[in-house]
Amino acid sequence: MGRTIVPIGPYHPLQEEPEFFTLTVEGETVVDIDVQLGYNHRGIEKLSESKSFDQTTFLVERICGICSTSHPFACTRAVEDIIPVEVPERAKYIRTIIAEGERIHSHLLWLGLAGHFLGYNTVYMWAWKLREEILDVMEILSGNRNNYAMFKPGGVRRDIKTEDITGVIEKIDSIVPTLEMLKKAVIDDPVLHARTKGIGILSKEEAINFSALGPTARASGVARDVRKDSPYGAYDKIGWKMIVTQNGDVFDKAVVRILETFESIKIIKYCLLNLPAGEIDLKLKNIPAGEGIGHIEAPRGETFHYIRSDGTNRPVRHKVRAPTFMNLPTYKATVVGETISDATIILAAIDPCYCCTERMAVRTTKGKKLYNGEELVKLSQAKTEKLRKKMGY
Amino acid sequence: MTREEVLNDIKERFAEEIIEVLDKSARRVYIEIKPSAITKVAGYIFGDLKARFNIASGIDARYHMEILYHFTIEDINLLISLRVKLPKPKLEIDSLAPLFEAANWIEREMYELLGIHFRGHPDLRRLLLPEAWPEGVHPLRGDYKEWDKSAIRDRGV
After folding, report:
1. CA end-to-end span of chain A
2. Which of A183, A221, B55, B107 is packed most tightly, with the most Cβ within 10 A?
3. pLDDT given at position B155
């Protein structure tokens, strides 16, 4: 059978990390995949070498719009690791609250988009409506709906006001019933099962071989979470469960994220209710020469920062590794052998930047255009519709 | 194995290859090894000690090029950074990508940004820089000079 090249991408203004996929398909089956990156390579590592340690925190906050806390968190921990020093208890709790709030809104954003790609626009609307509540909470706590600017080496920049806490907890509690309903709707839906179970499987061996991270790895039975394995912030003081599932398919990746959202709510509430009194900042003055590593669990997996200092107020080297860098190559193991109508959701299942899925175009070898991104989403939604009719729902 | 047992095991097994061990803190160890031993040591840490490959970071340290390979052994909560120093100007080291897929992309990145050649890499292409970027210009090197990028910037406009 003749092979067809399917280019996906390269650019979407919504996303911070545009990618260009080349799928090779035989009929409807994907037989090869290649990825090209760098369309939005901003040279942040180089730029960081010209900033002071206080400024790098703000610079790395601009790497990602969705998980804007994970980079400053890892960066400040890397700077603190140079000395090394531990931040005050109260700062640890505040950091944990902000990081978990971000995890909730990031997972809800993913859930909504995944629903949209599968033709479940109701899930999309519900999830994003709930996300809105969390963004409001973040605004109360930090003053911003995103890019919270709460972190600095040695502590946090803003304290949480005691009078805000009750209102915030009420607001978080208010989303729980709807989230429960959404969980049931997604986990018990037979059409969704038919559409996502056994699709895009990442085996445990492959997950280890690719060093996959976060929910992508945990859905494949790799019980790894930086929050548990190398506790930072207040995570070692709180009782919470690491969510691990075994199948590694799209369904399991969704389940991990949904259940993690509940754990995050638990963590935030515990932290708010048990916020210790005291300083929030160490007021670090000089960073000595040396090197430090900071790694934290972002919504998509481990974010890793390496910083080397020569004793001045600027890093001489600042290495940033976002989780998608390790998760993206797993496409090679998950997409090959699947059909083109499932590629959309498999590509979305590791929670990458969505630009790829939004800007699909299918071409024949002669260069004649067959589908664009919208049509591919329609293709995916039509498959769900067909299944739904067949199963009598 | 405990943290001490793991470290002693590595020290004994690779006594010939290890140049220096810096036991920085409870969670961090830096081990400098000879560049020729990288596949042996990294393969042992990843394969036998069941470590996870975090990432590698290349650093231009003026007289030599340094690469740090970061591994985490989660069971003992230890981050091991293998340090190799490559003398300039011949920047070559064996690739880890044949051992584990996780090293594939980062070696491509170091290849283009720092100009390090990885022997035996299955697919040593550029990862981030555009095709129009000139050969032999490596933006993360210390001696990198700005050049006229208008040809790249204005293409297709």
Report:
1. 36
2. B55
3. 63
Domain boundary among A293, A325, A357: A325
Q: What are the tens digits of pLDDT across the range A13-43?
A: 334 456 777 888 888 888 888 877 777 777 8
Q: Which domain holds residue A244?
A: 44-325
Instruction: Answer whether B59 sits within 8 Å of A45, measured CB to CB.
Output: no
From A325, A342, A358, give the residue that closes a domain.
A325
Number of structural domains in chain A: 2
Among partner residues A211, A316, A319, which is closest to B102 by beta-carbon distance? A211
Could B68 and A295 be called an inter-chain contact, meaning their C-beta atoms sit closer than 8 Å? Answer: no
CB contacts < 8 A, A to B, total 76
DSSP A121: H
Report DSSP letters for A129-194, one per residue.
HHHHHHHHHHHHHHS-SS----EETTEESSPPPHHHHHHHHHHHHHHHHHHHHHHHHHHS-HHHHH
Domains and CATH numbers, chain B: 3-147 (3.30.460.80)
Q: How confident is the model at residue A236 (pLDDT cuts 50, 70, 90)?
A: very high
Predicted pLDDT of residue B98: 94
Measure B27 CA to nearest chain A CA, in Å: 8
Residues of A in contact with B79 (CB under 8 A): 230, 293, 295
Q: Are residues A177 and A301 in the same domain?
A: yes
The answer on A230 and A108 residing in a single domain is yes
Q: Which residues of B touch A209 (CB under 8 A)?
A: 100-102
